[in-house]
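Progress against Task 2.4 (sequence-to-structure conversion) is shown through the following example record, which the project officer requested during the mid-term review.
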Amino acid sequence: MPNTKTAKKRMILSRIANARNRAQRSRIKTAIRRVREAQDLETAQLRLREAVALLDRAATRGLLPKNRVARIKSHLALRVNALAR
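Structure tokens generated for the chain above:
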């Protein structure tokens, strides 16, 4: 348990941030899964656009490392482009 008022406040804020980050990561994972599960090209492209927006926002805010985001976006784009063939 925290001993000071400041430590107690940090604990509360940390829990709030942790819950927010967990929710954002979950949204990103869901968006990635939807891109991978897309059967036709139009749906895949639409879902890719949504996933890329979420990933870029996460990288900007420091939720995910920017190189990891770039790798995920690249892999998803390869998968969507494979549907085009």
